[in-house]
UniProtKB/TrEMBL annotation:
Protein name from the UniProt record: Aerobic-type carbon monoxide dehydrogenase large subunit CoxL/CutL-like protein
InterPro entries attached to this UniProt entry: Ald_Oxase/Xan_DH_a/b, AldOxase/xan_DH_MoCoBD1, AldOxase/xan_DH_MoCoBD2, AldOxase/xan_DH_Mopterin-bd_sf, N-heterocyclic_Hydroxylase, OxRdtase_Mopterin-bd_su_IorB, TAT_signal
GO molecular function: oxidoreductase activity
UniProt-listed SMART domains: Ald_Xan_dh_C
Organism field: Marinobacter algicola DG893
Amino acid sequence: MSMNRRDFLKVTAGSSGGLVLSLSLPGCAGIQTGYDELDGSWTPDAWLELTTDDQVYFTLARVEMGQGTYTGLTTLIAEELGVTPASIKPRFAPAAPKYRNPLYNLQLTGGSTSLATSWQPLRVAGASARMMLIAAAASVWEISPTECRAVEGRVVHPNGRDNLAYGRLVELAAKQPVPKAPSLKPREEWKYIGKERGRLDAEAKSTGAPVYGIDVELDGMVYAVVSRPARYGARVKSYDDTAARQLPGVLDVFEIDRGVAVVADKYWRARKAQDALTIEWDNDGALDASSDQVFSSYHKAADEDPGESERSEGDFDDAQQGAERVLEASYEQPYLAHATLEPMNATAWYRDGAIDVWAPTQAPDLGRIAAARVTDLSPDEVTIHTTFLGGGFGRRLTNDYIEEAASVAYRIRKPVKLIWSREEDTRHDVYRPAMLHRMRASVSGDRLTGWHHQIVGPQILDWYVRNAAPAQYPWAPKFLYGTLGRVGLMAEGIATPKDHSAIEGAIEYPYRVPNLDIRHTHTDPGVPVSWWRSVGFSHNGFAVETFMDELAHEVDQDPYRFRRSLIDHEPRHLGVLDRVAQLAQWDSAALEGRARGVALFRSFGTYVAQVVEASVEFGEIRVHRVFCAVDCGQVVNPDIVRDQIEGGIIFGLTAALYGNITLEDGQVQQSNFHDYSLMRHDQRPEVVVDIIDSNESPTGVGEPGVPPVIPALGNALFALTGKRQRSLPLKATV
């Protein structure tokens, strides 16, 4: 295409300023699939938009819950497009199949996959747009595109003086063919990727500008709260709302599937009315287990069922029989809540035969199913408006709060904001599973000859498939939802992905040992569970790395060097292990009254090694310093990597020191931060994070800081006290 300057000016002068170039991005075809360079095909995932008034919009297909997608993914587009990251306006994607995460075939943010799955597709999209804009400018100047370059939103003529803003070129660029294999910028030309830069949303968050779910305000909005049974599985038997209805501002009181809803003109009036309700619950068939019973059932299941083999190499039984000694240990870890600082909430408005939902959800397409399930609407009649999230950690992958808001709004026919109290958020969470680990190792001399790991506990997919399966087939009628869920479970590992939630981190056991036997005994006591920050890696990390520490002491070897001798075939593992030993000055003595522990773990493709320095002071565990080396491949934003790793460390230490959801007669005993504590600022250790320089494709950082810090702390306490702790939370005295 060729166009002279006069014709070009006529075209651009008559443009409307609206959208004229829209590029379909490659689908978040993650690490496993990626962009097909052979035929240039991709699956639409998100939209890059350039307008004639020089605006650049990037529709973010992953939610922002503090992990940095708003900045990181925008940086990828900016680098290849040739604009500053701050000049791009991100906006959250609506629920739609084209925004699905291909690793799960669902539109969700989790598993530390956002950057890893977007690394190639977003750069390809930005580069494609840049090349089309350059081609458009070259056609105006009647020169070769190779003579032009794109600089900060403009295409520059080879004379260095003439230039054309992207906004003036979009109409012409839209007529250019989309490059099948666009040239990506080489690393040495990067201006933004890998550089120290702040977050794009930092200023807005500092001034309170972003809208979180709990901030949503609509004209005529009313408020709802829900009373739920204390025991999971119980239902309303009867209720008396006489006193509640007489209170000021109360609009309605009625039963929904999950309890009794109260609607009022103000939030606190709804709470007051809730207190005035009298509800009798039908506990027939409800959960009645205690925490002691849960673990008793786990041990019984482990005795009766050796479990399904998940990884087997060599012959552990032979190794055990021929060993000089066999070591055994069992590790127990409790249920854990998510404790997001923004409690569960959603705003819904049913009108004109459709419902709009504003919610801080990690899974918008599952939110559509949740709202459709409790109304007479189809998923196509449900619109999800995703907001900023005040923490997620996997909790907001389950959309029970959207079900409740939709149920209320469908009856009230007004915009309704439903808010959970902190107590409700704690007692009606979907928890990180409690797990049991039985370990055995065969040792001859100072050599580890065999490793046996039996993991005992539930699978999360059993609980999650209820809405996940219908979300994969949104065209299916609602009467098939239950069938889709059952089929999804039956086809697990065949037609649907295998659920690795119980075994992840264990089956990737990295140490060199000739005989491996890793098994999962599937048992479920009926406590609702879901994903939690680092999921199975969190409990498997504690079991694996604590047992490795026990083995090191058994063969009278230094814990760092023992690991090193078994990992020298894994260069990236070895790299972070050696680096953290240097950071912590492992071979120097700790300060008096302190001790160090080390742990190494790979999760979500990221290699992490940590050393924790701790003491016991005034009857309490004190964590003084945490050293961390991380290899997450190519880094997009070093500041965010450090933030996320440090956040994961604090999250893991919180679980190690305080995390414990206990049950009595099927009821959760904890209710708020006074009895389900978070690590406070004055308890926070000094954290040193060192990032390994790498040319590998980037991997996740939101969760990998969690798994190694828990065993590293336990190992430090053993070094300090000589007493081994095999259950969590850790205690100052054993």
